[in-house]
From TrEMBL:
Catalytic activity, EC: 4.1.1.20
Catalyzed chemical reaction(s): meso-2,6-diaminopimelate + H(+) = L-lysine + CO2
NCBIfam families xref list: lysA (TIGR01048)
Protein name, as recorded: Diaminopimelate decarboxylase
Family: Belongs to the Orn/Lys/Arg decarboxylase class-II family. LysA subfamily.
Pathway where it operates: Amino-acid biosynthesis; L-lysine biosynthesis via DAP pathway; L-lysine from DL-2,6-diaminopimelate: step 1/1
Annotated positions binding substrate: R280, R316, Y320, E360, Y388
Annotated InterPro entries: Ala_racemase/Decarboxylase_C (IPR009006), DAP_deCOOHase_LysA (IPR002986), De-COase2_C (IPR022643), De-COase2_N (IPR022644), Orn/DAP/Arg_de-COase (IPR000183), PLP-binding_barrel (IPR029066)
Superkingdom of source: Bacteria
Cofactor dependence: pyridoxal 5'-phosphate
Its job: Specifically catalyzes the decarboxylation of meso-diaminopimelate (meso-DAP) to L-lysine.
Chain ranges of the Orn/DAP/Arg decarboxylase 2 C-terminal domain: 30-386
Residues recorded with modification N6-(pyridoxal phosphate)lysine: K60
Length: 436
């Protein structure tokens, strides 16, 4: 359940009026509900309770330190994919042993940082990485726990091609049939303890069925590895649980758990540990993006609303053609939608292209979208923006990355200030003879 709702015709996050947030912090601004983050983590953990999993939140989804700290305090670990994300997770106070590290192209420095920090598990994605990890760990005088990220050759369900990771030929992971060879090789490695199997099929996956197919293959592999004398202590099932972008389209965590838990119960009963790496399903509906209409214009018979948030602030529609429900914060005629999917039935709507200010023809947040009548200056809320929103923001066009605000009950606080012009140039070297 998310906590974004209309009261007296105005959208609120928990008890905070979003017009007040926009007035105080400006737009575009990401607004997160602390309660939603925590509730999502608790609900997911409860759904998988029989496996007592370690939930490693995927930092790439939405990695503000304050949010990581909240999740860490609530018991989550972190899934990281770079030295930068490792730095974030550790800075936010997430204990190293609860951190897992995936990624096809980890550098030697990144591996050293992970080993030195003493993270829980490195998810190795190639033969060469396994060898390098052993050398790095030996150099640091440490022993590191590792898993092999397996490519089970299973497609997602409703998963875009661009975000599919577990099919044959993908750059991610190691082909199933090559995995026994890596375990055999690891016996001779003195500083890597190869103890786990990892998979991540893609994102989002709108059905439990691909998990079942992939885990069945992983468990067959596990039996073979056991028969070869290898002990597997850990199975990491990755992330990919869908978020509710349009009411009713995403399965709940209970539906995923009902299919996955029975498969992994025997493994857990034998002392095995299960890890999961959810990102989107925790963060998406815990955050929204507030944007203001700058101009209304007619373009070839289309109503165009030019808003102050562009693809640099939220790239998902431009990059993946993703659908994000949007609605005015104070809709004209008090047209509050009964649900995200039922809004087209409301009378009195108009169709708008909602465009950003960036100099790219793909810079639209939505095309031909039915909305209540808009006026210049109106505030619009883009829902389910907490995942891969701010995390994918860029400074293209020297665009300032948005502010981030965290709401807790009736309080709101800034957890990241908006970029400034100084931020845009601070990493660039001063021009000779100038202060810049
Ligand atoms: C290795 C890994 N784990 C977890 C995730 C999180 O996925 P999601 O946000 O779909 O839960 C990702 C991103 O797709 C990933 O690459
Ligand atoms: N960034 C993507 C998902 C890819 C996840 C990366 N492993 C999104 O916005 O949906």
């Amino acid at each position: 359940m998310d906590r974004f709702d209309y009261h007296d015709g105005v959208l609120h996050c928990e008890e905070v009026n979003l017009e007040d947030v926009a007035a105080e912090y400006g737009t575009p601004t990401y607004v997160y509900s602390r309660d939603t983050f925590r509730t999502h983590l608790a609900d997911l953990t409860a759904a998988f309770a029989e496996l007592d999993p370690l939930v490693c939140y995927a930092v790439k989804t939405c990695g503000n330190l304050h949010l990581l700290h909240e999740l860490g305090q609530a018991g989550a670990g972190a899934d990281v994919v770079s030295g930068g994300e490792l730095h974030r997770a550790l800075t936010a106070g997430i204990p190293a042993e609860r951190i897992v590290f995936a990624g096809v192209g980890k550098s030697e420095d990144e591996l050293r940082e992970a080993v030195t920090a003493g993270i829980g598990c490195v998810n190795v994605e190639s033969e060469s990485e396994l060898e390098l990890l052993d050398r790095v760990a030996a150099g640091a005088g440490r022993t590191v726990r590792a898993a092999i990220r397996v490519n089970p050759d299973v497609e997602g369900h409703g998963t875009p091609q661009k975000t599919t990771t577990g099919t044959r030929g993908s750059k991610f992971g190691v082909d199933l049939e090559r995995v026994p060879g890596l375990f055999a090789r690891a016996i001779a490695l003195s500083h890597v303890r190869l103890v786990g199997l990892h998979m991540h099929l893609g994102s989002p996956i709108y059905s439990p069925e691909p998990y079942v197919r992939a885990l069945t293959r992983l468990l067959d592999l596990l039996a073979k590895l056991n028969a070869d004398g290898h002990e597997i202590e850990l199975i990491n099932i990755g992330g990919g649980f869908a978020a509710d972008y349009e009411t009713g389209l995403a399965p709940g965590w209970d539906a995923y758990a009902a299919a996955i838990v029975p498969l992994l119960k025997p493994f857990v009963a034998n002392g095995g540990r299960v890890v999961t790496e959810p990102g989107r399903s925790i963060a998406a509906n815990a955050g929204v993006l507030l944007t203001r209409v700058r101009y209304l214009k007619d373009a070839g018979g289309h109503r165009v609303a030019v808003v102050d948030a562009g693809m640099t602030n939220m790239i998902r529609a431009a990059f993946y053609d993703s659908f994000h429900f949007m609605w005015p914060v104070r809709p004209a005629g008090a047209l509050v939608p009964p649900s995200r999917s039922e809004h087209p039935r409301l009378a009195g709507l108009h169709r708008y292209d909602v465009a950003g200010p960036i100099c790219e023809s793909s810079d639209y947040l939505a095309r031909d979208r039915a909305l209540p009548s808009l006026a210049e200056g109106d505030l619009i809320c883009l829902f389910a923006a907490g995942a891969y929103g701010m995390a994918m923001a860029s400074q293209y066009n020297s665009s300032l990355r948005p502010a981030e605000v965290l709401v807790e009950g009736a309080d709101s606080r800034l957890i990241r200030r908006r970029d400034t012009y100084a931020d845009l140039v601070e990493a660039e070297l001063a021009l000779p003879g100038t202060r810049f």
